[in-house]
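Lecture 7, part 2: worked example. A protein chain together with iron/sulfur cluster.
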Amino acid sequence: MALEDMRSPIESGCPDGFQYMHPTMRKNFGQWKYHEHPRPGVLLHVAHSGDQIWTVKAGTQRILDVYSLRKLTEIGDKFADGYIRFTLRSNIEYMVTDEAKVEPMIKALEDAGFIVGGTANSVAMMSHTQGWLHCDIPGTDASGVVKAMMDELIDEFKQCNMPNRVHITTSCCQINCGGQGDIAINVQHTKPPKINHDLVANVCERPTVVARCPVAAIRPAMVNGKPSLEVDEKKCICCGACFPPCPPMQINDPENSKLAIWVGGNHSNARSKPTFQKLVAAGVPNNPPRWPEATAIVKRILKEYKEGAKDWERINDWIDRIGWPRFFEVTGLPFTKYHIDNWRGARNSLNASTHIRF
Ligand code: SF4
Ligand code: SF4
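Predicted complex, written out as structure tokens:
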């Protein structure tokens, strides 16, 4: 085929970010001399060219309605030359080249009900998964947990009082997105799924569901003369992976779907390897609309971290230094049988080998 006859590819995926970048950022890309943190929620970058640019960060609720978005963009048009960007944790950032506009912009954001902060050694905005709004398998509403907790942690977002930054996450199921943070609040199912045998044959592709179970606890069965499935409850680890391909295997329930709190997850960086989270509280009530039990545990961990960690220690560094027995002692969390990973298949999973899973 001649070159001119070939169809040009349809690009999908991320657009080039440079086209949306503030011109001063674009001009000085890779040419920064130093940066400072003049106050919580504001960063100052100084370039070798002598250009200066202030970044103002404000928290948002992530799932933004059109009115809030309009308000935020109006503020951007007025103070930040019409440029905005969103961070991974759904904060909005404005770039300002005129120092005189920084304080009026902060005032405009606060007058409109937004909070400025989340930089450096603060508790950044909690990130969360989609919950009821977009997904078909959540066991709780992650954004509700975030709202309830951030209402109580708002001062830690606005100030920089922590030994180092703290990233908190929430996830609304046990198997898919989210989860990696200094503190993670995740759904924990505690009972095997209940099967509605009347629906399985019409709704589920049984081999897919059988293949989906990580511990081979599901097998085909005939129930009341209809093709269905059965679960070996002794093997089942209550992960919930069978529920998405087969909704009649209902695992969510208001009593037995709980929350679990994990700590110490951290991505690798220039100095250290990645660290995995460890479970510190299991069976915490999934108690909307304010989740008081889970919030109390998170606040307790943060209080002890704030008081006990040295400057620059992340939560995992602090625990590594004091040890797990001391962590449970200072936080007052009970150490129970659920904290021991005694699952016999664990050594073959947990990314410890080049193990292929289907
Ligand atoms: S964590 Fe699970 S339930 Fe929540 S959005 Fe992700 S896949 Fe859906
Ligand atoms: S909940 Fe998980 S372990 Fe239990 S049967 Fe379903 S997929 Fe298997």
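Residues 353-358 have pLDDT under 50 and may be disordered. Residues 185 and 261 are 5 Å apart (CA to CA). Keep this in mind for problem set question 3.
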